[in-house]
Amino acid sequence: MLAEGERAGLEGPEGVAASVDPEGGDTEAIVVTAAGADRPWRIDRRSGRAEALGGGLRRDEAEDAADLADRAQLVLGHPVTLSWAFRDGRPVVRSLEALVPQPRFVEGRWRLLTLVAPDEGTVVPLGVDTLDRALGARSTRPAVDVTVRRIFARPYRRREDEGASLGRGRAEPLPRAVRRAARAGKDVAPFLGDAIRYERGAPVQLRQRGLVDLSGLGDEPLLAEARERQRLVADALLLLDDGRRASREALLALEAVIGALDDGMVEALAAPRSPRERRRIGERLEELREREAREGRALAGEQTTLRGELGDVRPLGIDLEPGPIGASDASLERALATNRGGVYRERARLDAEREAALRARRRGLGRVAPAQALTALLRRVARAKGGVSHAHAIASLAFRDTALAVGRRLVAAAVLDRAIDALYLEMEELARALRGEPGAYAARVRLRREDDQRWARFEPPRTLGDPI
After folding, report:
1. Pick from 158, 303, 129: which is nearest to 231 by CA?
2. How far is Cα 452 from Cα 123, in angstroms, rounded to an integer?
């Protein structure tokens, strides 16, 4: 920012710039307004060019001021409004403040997508493409209309009105509550069966596919392999969404038995419960983290041993960017920092189950048995979701390896700069790039990476659009 003595050197126009459209919330538009002008300029962030002409400035001046706002947002990690003025023919910042956008720039209603973790941060485009292929399979909207899209570089899903809301239910008369509990068991049964089959079958399929030498495949067979592995990931994502619906049905039935559940009970009873193999991984990480905390230093020997054990184990989550936990010192450090809460979640689940039993007793002994049956059902659903999450991690790592194989070929063809850049393209973009169709793929990757950096520390709104 300018010191007071430097202001005398200002020349030319001055005004304000918002790095996000302050009225519409569009993250891809920069709005520049010259002092005294009757209309603002609107600059497209991706091209850096004016898409709506304003007043009081030349086109190049508006675009230069917009670039200043964009770079300020990139450095600070959140949207900004700044006051600018020209000095020696270049715009400079006079003052700056954070901007909270009002996100109304999309049609329809959208919700930040949660299937494995509350908010994993930015998600690469290939991951969003896979989510859309999975969750769009049952969409009632036209096929050309996406179900999942990147907004604030995070996955948002179109909201559908699911009827009754958790936390608002009332205890129903006992006969009706018992019927509701029985119906929930029948509704959830198909998901439990599908989850068990996937958890057992997907790793076997992937072990068989792992015998394929990706480097020896032609371009089209490699794309076919990538699509098949993407399908396995999409199947897991669809099952995780089914698991979300199964938990919801069982929780609504539990509310019919004991009354409205608070948010803490809902979260505890619905949280996935990892299978034994995944829990052991968490225990190993937690043990090392606690030892390092006690000794106040990193234990290099133990870290090397653990890295070897976790060389083919991927973190849980929907994003495709993370590789194996044991891939590098940095990936192990991230796992040590984020691997918390497993024991806490189980304690919270037990506390919620006890609270449900206590509330049922208070309402009458006839409600105890259906309440116990529903909490047992919720535990089975949680275990199934945890198993699918673990299998999904295995499938995601296999899909990631195939995408990197495509990326290496595109690097050799001078289409991409790095193999990992393939994760920043959608499946059809990868196919077109591998076939030699023009598309400025490296530029697309750079812009999308900048999106991720821009929004990594920004806390996005949970919902977009008009309230339900």
Report:
1. 129
2. 8
Tokens of 146: 């996406």
How large a percentage of the chain has pLDDT more than 70?
A: 93
Please state the rounded mean pLDDT for residues 349-368.
94
- 8-state DSSP, 315: P
Quick check: 448 pLDDT over 60?
A: yes
Distance (Å, rounded) from C-alpha 56 to C-alpha 37?
Answer: 5
Long-range contacts of 213-220 (CB under 8 A, 24+ apart): 214/401, 214/402, 214/405, 215/405, 219/409, 219/434, 219/435
The pair of structure tokens assigned to 206 is 């992937």
Q: Are 268 and 352 in contact (CB under 8 A)?
A: yes
The pTM (predicted TM-score) of the whole model is: 0.83
- Cα torsion through 152, 156, 158, 160, rounded to 10: -120
Asked if 21 and 105 count as a contact pair (C-beta separation under 8 A), the reply is yes
Closest CA relative to residue 112, chosen from 158, 71, 51: 158
Closest-CA residue to 248 (of 158, 173, 187): 187
Condensed to tens digits (0 to 9), the pLDDT of residues 238-277 reads 999 999 999 999 999 999 999 999 989 999 999 999 898 8
In sequence order, what are the residues at sequence separation of 6 or more whose Cβ sits closer than 8 angstroms to the Cβ of residue 101?
A: 20, 21, 22, 25, 27, 79
